[in-house]
From TrEMBL:
It comes from Nicotiana attenuata (Coyote tobacco). This is Glycosyltransferase. PROSITE patterns: UDPGT (PS00375). It is an enzyme of class 2 (transferase). The keyword tRNA-binding does not apply. Belongs to the UDP-glycosyltransferase family. Its EC number is 2.4.1.-. InterPro entries: UDP_glucos_trans, UDP_glycos_trans_CS. GO terms for molecular function: quercetin 3-O-glucosyltransferase activity; quercetin 7-O-glucosyltransferase activity. SUPFAM superfamilies: UDP-Glycosyltransferase/glycogen phosphorylase. Keywords: Glycosyltransferase, Transferase. The lineage of its organism: Eukaryota, Viridiplantae, Streptophyta, Embryophyta, Tracheophyta.
Length: 480
């Protein structure tokens, strides 16, 4: 049977980690010979072009195009975690008409004037449930890419049942109560690990409402892409499959892409997709440190901390006696810009053992031999990047999938410790010593084992390698 030329439209959430993962997926599709359109917001596209080589990198693929739309917010508005809900709904208002137009084929010429084949498959972020409705309405297959952790996605999928049996909203204030109706997580998942752990009323919690809409849209889609691998999440993937026509576990994506780019000997290799300027002096500083002597500290691109929390972490780290490299983003401090003087004074106080940057080349940092561990907020990309490098973690989860992921790091994969809601300098000091010194060998052994499995999964014949081939084949077969 003759199929139309496959043309995929990728549409990420307008924040760093999904943009990173979707660009990696876009490049994998380009290498597989698909036509790809990447829909970005004007705001993020500007940052991406300013701080990365994406323009020259993607010029290697003549069938790749960027398209941009407004996210609906005035340019001067901040786009941090506080405004996330507002950003998502204003973007929806802009994206819905755009999607209808491009799927109709009436918006088929790109910014460079090239006429494109009609879009044959949409790959939106899993949170864009409305893209599934639009695809179904217009007869275009939709395969969402859920960029959160599969363990959290599984919890989302269980929410309707938890409501039905009365486990949510929570009765009482004890956050150590275990959930009984999350299959595969009995005896493991406590209220404090729940993505919306302060949930009082699911009907009025906007994030829980979006999660519920996403849950409804999954069975209506043509499949689901996940950034994980069988040996990490096998049992959960089976559970998730029961809600979804077809799942494709093709991660760790960044490693998968590096392999393919190497295989095809592309002149420009896969590199950063950062929306911030990377400070490479962090690598020079690491070059001067002994092997596995440094703990890397980063809370991702969105999480914010109070000044008190920053100071607890700082004193805990300093008191541990371990060297550390800390990413202090300018918007790390909740509610206000991080004061340069404050950061400078902190750094001056521990010059010989600490180094601060405002944004690091994280994949390179984690791959550095001087790094022995990672103090992380348990964002899913950071977790996968750490697993690939076999670096044990201390988890201080802030919200949503981070809360479930950190529980898995500590109790299921046993590649680190979960601080959860504690932010106390004595606990931080103890955990840093535990990870980097006392129980180092044990953590390192389990982290390295998982790292090897991750590498096998994206090698020829591995589970993620095969799943990607299957995904590309299925996309090629999808007609309109
Ligand atoms: N990252 C980076 N430099 C930094 C901090 C983070 O390149 O200094 C990247 C990191 O490699 C990861 C992403 O930003 O790919 C953060 O994603 P994650 O899912 O861990 O957290 P989020 O930002 O979504 O909370």
């Amino acid at each position: 049977m003759d199929h139309p030329s496959p043309h995929v439209l990728l549409f990420p959430l307008p924040i760093q980690s999904p943009i990173n993962s979707m660009l990696q997926l876009a490049e994998l599709f380009c290498l597989a010979g698909l036509q790809v359109t990447f829909l970005n917001t004007n705001h993020n596209q500007k940052l991406l072009l300013r701080h990365t080589n994406v323009e020259s990198r993607f010029r290697q693929y003549p069938r790749f195009r960027f398209r941009t739309i407004s996210d609906g917010l005035p340019e001067e508005n901040p786009r941090s975690s506080v405004q996330f809900g507002e950003l998502i709904s204003s973007l929806q208002a802009m994206a819905e008409p755009f999607l209808r137009e491009i799927l109709l084929g009436s918006s088929s010429s790109s910014s460079d004037g090239v006429t494109e084949a009609p879009v044959t498959c949409v790959i939106p972020d899993g949170l864009f449930y409305y893209a599934v409705d639009i695809g179904n309405e217009m007869g275009v297959p939709v395969i969402p890419f859920d960029t959160i952790s599969p363990c959290c996605l599984w919890v989302y999928l269980c929410i309707p049942k938890l409501i039905q049996v009365g486990e949510i909203p929570f009765k009482g204030h004890d956050l150590d109560v275990l959930f009984e109706n999350v299959a595969g997580m009995q005896g493991l998942l406590r209220r404090r690990d729940f993505p919306f752990y302060r949930l009082i009323d699911y009907a009025t919690d906007p994030y829980c409402q979006i999660a519920l809409k996403e849950v409804e849209s999954i069975p209506q889609s043509n499949g689901l892409i996940l950034n994980t691998f069988e040996d990490l999440d096998g049992p959960l993937l089976s559970l998730i499959s029961s809600h979804c026509p077809q799942t494709y576990a093709i991660g760790p994506l960044h490693l998968h892409l590096k392999n393919k780019v190497g295989e095809k000997r592309m002149p420009i290799s896969a590199s950063s997709n950062s929306l911030w300027k990377e400070d490479h002096s962090s690598i020079q500083w690491l070059d001067a440190q002994p092997i596995e002597s440094v703990i890397y500290v980063s809370f991702g691109s969105m999480a914010t901390l109070s000044k008190e929390e920053i100071l607890e972490f700082w004193h805990g780290l300093v008191n541990s006696g371990i060297r550390f490299l800390w990413v202090m983003r300018s918007n790390l401090l909740r509610g206000e810009e991080l004061n340069h003087q404050f950061v400078k004074e902190l750094a001056e106080g521990c010059k010989e053992r600490a180094y601060i940057v405002s944004w690091a080349p994280q994949e390179k940092v984690l791959a550095h031999s001087a790094i022995g561990g990672f103090l992380t907020h348990s964002g899913w990309n950071s977790t996968m990047e750490s697993i690939v490098q076999g670096k044990p973690m201390i988890c201080w989860a802030v919200y949503v999938d981070q809360r479930v992921t950190s529980r898995f790091v500590g109790e299921v994969w046993k590649i680190g410790v979960d601080m959860k809601d504690m932010c106390d300098r004595y606990i931080i000091e103890k955990m840093v010593k535990d990870l980097m010194v006392t129980n180092r060998d044990e953590f390192k052994k389990s982290a390295e084992k998982l790292s090897n499995l991750a590498k096998e999964s994206v090698g020829e014949g591995g589970s993620s390698y095969n799943a990607l081939e299957c995904l590309v084949d299925d996309i090629k077969k999808l007609g309109r």
